[in-house]
Structure formats: structure tokens, C-alpha cells
Amino acid sequence: MRKLTASVFVLFLLTGNPASADEVLSKVLDRISVGGESAFYIQGSSSANINGRRFGADNIGGISAALNLSVEVAEQGCAKVQLKYMDNGTLEPDSELLASANEINAGPDNRNQVLVKKAYYTQEFFSGRFFLAAGKADPETWMDGNAYAGDQYVQFIGQALVDNPVFDLEDENGPALAAGVRLADEWSLAVVGVSTSHPWPGARSTKSEWEDVLSGPFVGAQVTFSPKQGDLAGNYRLYAWSASYDHANLDPAKPGFSPGWGLGISLDQEIFRNGGAFVRAGYQNEEVYACPWFVSGGLSFTGLFPGRENDIWALGAAWLSHNGSLPDRDAETHLETYYRVIFNQHISLSPDVQYILNPGQDPNAGDLWVWMLRLELAF
Length: 379
Hints:
The protein is mainly beta. Helices cover 10% and strands 51% of the residues.
């Protein structure tokens, strides 16, 4: 309120006219949009033996909130800032999983802090057919999106269904540069470069993502086809990426280092008026990744029950293959379902259940159950 009052005062001094000052302020505020979402949750897991470690049943609670600010700085130019806050625990078995059972809990070292996760500027040209963006962001700002599996605040919670887990673990929020072009009404191309700290375990060296930004950056490109059949929309994405710094080779018979890289697809398609399907798949350099192949998919339905026309029920499955260079390993499989009870546009409640087979790629492990009750607030 003080800032707005000060703005009106400054505008009054410049214009000498309170009416003009209010009009100018109104135009300024029209260029600003603020929104956000938060999740309050409790999560629990069953007991399990994973990779020789015994885990008892565990329970945690947490909160994660994101505030998004968008400002139209110039014609076809927009600045975006995302602030994020987290305060939560971590399920003990989660440390052994190839893909986390709680993507809301990403970044445990940043707990109890307000962080600037994104701060970047995008300028469009030629009526939006071309864009340039620069600032602080992650590759997923422009790559690997999905209409049904991409927002852990209101959709799936497990990392294996929120995104491609190998791709996700390679990206960070650092200095970023992106460019894109809309080739036709249904085709678009985006190219992304982001500095990283070389986060993968076994990397030859690490650094801050803010120093020597051209040393082993993440680079990627995505082609998107977005057809529409009547009222049914879809998005078909094909992408390739490289985390070009040195990763340790997994095969003891081939010691040394290799770059990380991968190919992936992310598809979502409305298949009827109240529901749709999604598929993700990826191949990663098997010399350095314990999961060379990854596949996930599922269905989402809206308004299955009379009187609950806005509620959403979704189910999905993900398969993370094992690397043949690692002995006594097996594919890790995730099954997840949630039901989102939507009270209004601001409040919803979602019970969620996950069943994980061969957690930690351990063929001798007991299967793991994970549940969550999530309260979602949006504005």
C-alpha cells in the first residue's frame, strides 16, 4: 500500500493532475500480474529393505509455496520472477530411490528460505513468432512440459511422473539464455542454454553455476507439434539435451569420464471432452547414467461423479530401466494415483498413493508404499 501511495504521489507531481495520476497508475497496474500456489501436506511410507538398509515406516509434513510475478515491461516484452519457499522433512527411503517419491520436496538444502528460483526477461518479435529470453531459469521453463504431468502442486507428486527424472536432476536454476521460433501455427522450436554447477554425482569437478558459466553448460533443443482436432488439443514434444561436463563412467571395465546427454519425448493429448492421456520417454547416455531408458504414461479424467464436475482423478505408471554395467540391479517401477477434490478456484484437496516396485533398483527389496494428503491453495 505504501508503494502504491508513493507511486500516486510521484505521478501527481509529474502530471499535476490527480485524475491523470490515477489513470497512469491504473495503466501501470494493468501491466502487472501476481499469482501463486502452495501445498501443505503430510506424507508417509511403509517399511522396506532397500540396498541392504532397513527402513521403518516413516511420516513427514511440509509446506511449499511459489509466488509468480509478471510485468509487461515493453510491447511484446515481459519480465517474470518466481519466489519459492519450502519447509519440510524427507522420507528416509527416498534417499535410495532412483526417482524421488516427493517432487514437492525438491531441493532439501534450501529449506526454510525464500529463494528467487526464476528471474528472466522475454522479448517477442514479429507478433510472437520469435522470442529471446535471458536471466535466471531452468531448462524445464522451455522444455519437457506436459498438460497432465508437470505440476507437483496439483498433479502427480512422484518425480517419475512429474518429469523425466534424469533430465530433471541435470538441470538447475542458473544463468540462462533461450530462443524460440514458431515455424507455423502448429510447429515451434526452442533452443536453451543454462549454466550448471556440474551437479551429477561422480562429476570430475564442481563449481558455482554463476562462475565460468560456459564451462560444461546444459544445452538443449525442443521441437513441439501442437495440433487441434475440433475441440481436442494436444502437444507432441521431441527434445535433445547435453550436460556437457565430465561424468564418471559406470562400467568398471571402461574407467574415465564421458559427457551426459539424452533424447526424450513428452506427449499430452485430450482424447475426449473430460479427459486425456500423456506419455513420456527418454534415452540417456548409458555410459554414465544408471537409468538408460525411461518411460511413463497415464490418464486424467475430469468430472467422473455427478455433482463433482471439476474433480480430477488421474493414474500413471513409470518404468526406469537398469544399467547392465551395474550388477544385481533391476528396473524401478512407479505406480501412482490421486484424486483432486476441487472446492473452488482457490482450494483443493488431494489424497495420493504411490506403489514402487524394486525401489533403488534393488531386486531383493521389498516393495514400497507411499501416501500423501495434500492441501492446495492458489491465488
